[in-house]
TrEMBL record:
Keywords: Cell membrane, Membrane, Transmembrane, Transmembrane helix. It holds the Pfam family BPD_transp_2. GO terms for cellular component: plasma membrane. CDD domains: TM_PBP1_transp_AraH_like. This is ABC transporter permease. GO terms for molecular function: transmembrane transporter activity. The lineage of its organism: Bacteria, Bacillati, Actinomycetota, Actinomycetes, Streptosporangiales. Its main location: membrane.
């Protein structure tokens, strides 16, 4: 009677890591992020209790986090899949400018929203095609898109801020209308986060994302179309940029080529702080959102305390360096 055999991947190719294998590490990191959030809250209560612990300040924090947060969800998928997207801020700006042109506004707020989503998804799809089928390095492809999208936005708007017309005020209502004291745009952000978590943790697409980021060759041998999946990841990131463009148009009542400046850095930093590996294969939506809230609270505390913006950037840079060093330390400790 023959002994049972265990199927193994091809010689020299490691099996893709399972996200469940990192469950304990993820929970520990989330606990650390929650502690960091709690410390920031304490700092706010101690330094500016009269301004920090107010309903208006809480709404301001959530509104600021909403726009970057939607982009962060898309960035989480891309980085877990082993890529990087430097163009998210520029794509959001392009989508906002395209949606606020007079020709688009004449069709109403629904068409404006659809236009922003289509422009964002289309730009993300171009990134995906260049990377997956054009064999360009993600850093180079998305850097080129950053420059091109920002330039196209400037060309379309003639470097001018485009105001949303009064007849399209329904779009602005996303920022001004509140349910239980919270703007509608925050609920849209929460919906995107929930859908992102479901897709990443409860669908085949999510499992394939971990597999492609963890070991592309093993994923290919397992029957996954790695190039097609990579293209879809960047299209998803572009879709999130389109949704973020709607939110920033609602919050500022404008479309501008300057929207989203350095948003790519905030989004990527939030993902890294949240525990997602830059090399791919590991990460969580929850961790990314906690990282985003940490960054948003830091920004809020600096503003309330009247500290210099340059000091804020220095603090964020130090946080990113510490997060990466902790990642490397954790990986070395768990290396066989």
């Amino acid at each position: 009677m023959s002994e049972p055999t265990t199927e193994r991947p091809a010689s020299g190719v490691a099996a893709p890591p399972s996200p469940r294998g990192f469950a304990g590490l993820g929970e520990m990191r989330h606990l650390g992020l929650l502690v960091a959030l709690a410390l920031l809250v304490v700092v706010g209560l101690v330094t500016r209790p009269e301004n920090f612990a107010t309903a208006s300040n809480l709404v301001s924090i959530l509104a600021l986090a909403a726009t970057i947060g939607v982009i962060t969800v898309g960035a989480t998928f891309v980085i877990i899949g082993g890529g990087i997207d430097l163009s998210v801020g520029a794509i959001m700006a392009l989508a906002s400018v395209w949606a606020t042109t007079l020709a688009t506004q004449s069709f109403g707020p629904v068409v404006m929203a659809v236009c922003a989503i289509l422009v964002g998804t289309g730009a993300g799809l171009v990134n995906g095609l260049l990377i997956a089928y054009g064999r360009l390095v993600p850093f180079i492809a998305t850097l080129a898109m950053l420059v091109a999208a920002r330039g196209l936005a400037q060309r379309m708007s003639d470097r001018k801020t485009q105001l949303i017309q009064p007849e399209n005020a329904a779009l602005v209502d996303l920022s001004t209308t509140r349910v239980l004291g919270i703007p509608l745009m925050v609920y849209i952000f929460a919906l995107v986060v929930v859908l992102g978590w479901i897709v990443l943790n409860r669908t085949t697409f999510g499992r394939r994302t971990y597999a492609v980021g963890g070991n592309p060759e093993a994923a290919r041998l397992a029957g996954i179309d790695v190039r097609r999946h990579t293209m879809l990841l960047y299209a998803l990131s572009g879709l999130c940029c389109g949704i973020a463009a709607i939110l920033i148009m609602a919050r500022t009542t404008t479309g501008s080529s300057t929207h989203g400046d350095l948003y790519e850095l905030d989004a990527i930093a939030a993902v890294i702080i949240g525990g997602t590996l830059l090399t791919g294969g590991r990460g969580t939506i929850v961790g990314s959102i906690l990282g985003l809230l940490i960054f948003t609270l830091i920004t809020n505390l600096f503003i309330l305390n009247g500290l210099n913006t340059s000091d804020q950037l220095i603090a964020k840079g130090l946080i990113i360096v510490v997060a990466v060093l902790l990642q490397r330390r954790n990986l070395k400790e768990r290396a066989p």
